[in-house]
Amino acid sequence: MRLKVNLLALLLAYRSAAHPHDTFSVGHRRNAEHDVKPKEQVIVWVDHAGHTIGIEHKHQTPTATFKSSPTELPLLPNTDNIIPDNPLPKLTVEVPELNTNRGPRFGITYSPYTSHGTCKTFDQINQDIEHLRHHAFIRIYGIDCDQTKLVTQASRQHGLKVFAGVFDLHNFPDSLHYIRDAATAAGGDWSIFHTIAIGNELVNKGQNKPADVVNAVNTARGILRGAGYQGPVVTVDTFSVMLQHPELCAASDYCAANCHAFFDNNQLPETAGEYALDKARRISAAAGGKKTVITESGWPHAGQPNGRAVPSPENQKKAIASLRKAFADDPDLVLFTAFDDLWKSDNQWTFGAERFWGIQDMGREREREQDRE
Q: Where does the UniProt annotation place the signal sequence (predicted)?
């Protein structure tokens, strides 16, 4: 009877303040063995770790000798249904993948003509530029259709710079007035211009000799500096011409070269980026270490094969991805081109692809049907 009473007392003690009912730590209790009279009762209060925290005597309190030994508490109810394996919900954090295209990246070439070769209106140009706003700047080639003023106006609205230029040396240097007028229309603000180019592939096409182009670049720089423009002035030609004529680089504020792996019949789209990067490094080496910017590079999505270089939408995607990867640390790369140039015509060197270089994943398909109307 005594053992029963004592056990009952200790069990009650276990559920007392020493062991709150919502505490699930497994503790110990102690059985007290008394050398005392049977009428007397002693209750020992212990905590969850088995330490005595109090002794309660009832009736008389004779001297008692205690012998204690730890005894395991009865097993608590199965806590699997009380405490889940994961008592706190898992915190899920979305870690975005590294996006090398975050923010404006690279330049993109753009021609403001309809499929019939007529001039686009400002509203049409503005709509096109809106779809290109994830780039850093727009490269245009000439001054016709008042494109310098219209493209710079639209680009200002969308936070882009403009790589402008005169396409050839006809009416040069008077042709520079169109560029100056674009800045004047913006209150004399030249900050919109990324670069101003004097000619595009003039030596490669046989239109001008290298010395003539060098003189034109130097003349243009003097005129533009006098008008308030302090940015780069260059001439653009193919990478092979730049390697043969480093004086073109010397006259420019940086070396500006067009380079397309597609025109090398041994190239695959996966190597387009490394191909262009290698040519840029070679040009810089030939120019005494001067910076080189690849001012055109892309891949057609339709046309005829050039050996291993095959035009297709899938190959274009591979080539553009290769270019972005190879030039990840050089935001001045200029991708070719924003949209298909349906107004162009082919020759024996273009493999039926001249109209189909528009990058297909630009965010929308070119509105071909609208252009054809």
A: 1-18
Rounded-to-integer distance, Cα 175 and Cα 31, Å: 107
Q: Which of 150, 212, 138 is nearest to 178 (CA)?
A: 150
How far, in Å, CA of 301 to CA of 360, rounded? 8
* pLDDT digits (tens), the chain, 373 positions: 443 434 333 333 434 433 333 333 333 333 333 344 444 555 555 454 455 555 555 444 444 444 444 444 344 344 444 334 444 333 333 323 333 445 448 999 999 999 999 999 999 999 999 999 999 999 999 999 999 999 999 999 999 999 999 999 999 999 999 999 999 999 999 999 999 999 999 999 999 999 999 999 999 999 999 999 999 999 999 999 999 999 999 999 999 999 999 999 999 999 999 999 999 999 999 999 999 999 999 999 999 999 999 999 999 999 999 999 999 998 899 999 999 999 999 999 999 999 999 998 765 444 443 444 3
- Mapping DSSP to helix (H, G, I), strand (E, B) and coil, where does residue 349 land? coil
Active site residues: 296
* CA–CA dist 341, 298 (Å, integer): 14
Kind and range of the H or E run holding 250: helix 246-251
- How does strand 28-30 pair with strand 70-72? antiparallel
Q: Does the model's pTM come out above 0.90? A: no
Q: Taking Cα atoms as reference points, which of 3, 22, 14, 71 lies closest to residue 46?
A: 14
Q: Residue 13 — left, alpha, or beta (φ > 0 → left; ψ -120 to 50 → alpha)?
A: alpha
Give the domains, in start order, of the chain with CATH numbers. 2-76 (no CATH), 107-372 (3.20.20.80)
Angle of CA points 104, 105, 109, to nearest 5°: 105
Output the six-digit token pair for 363.
Answer: 């965010």
In sequence order, what DSSP letters do the residues of 148-182 get, joined into one string? HHHHHHHHHHTT-EEEEEESSSTTTTTTHHHHHHH
- Counting Cα atoms < 13 Å in the Cβ hemisphere of 57 gives 10
Report which of 115, 202, 122 is spatially closest to residue 155, judged by C-alpha positions.
Answer: 122
Q: How far apart are CA 269 and CA 200, in angstroms?
A: 25
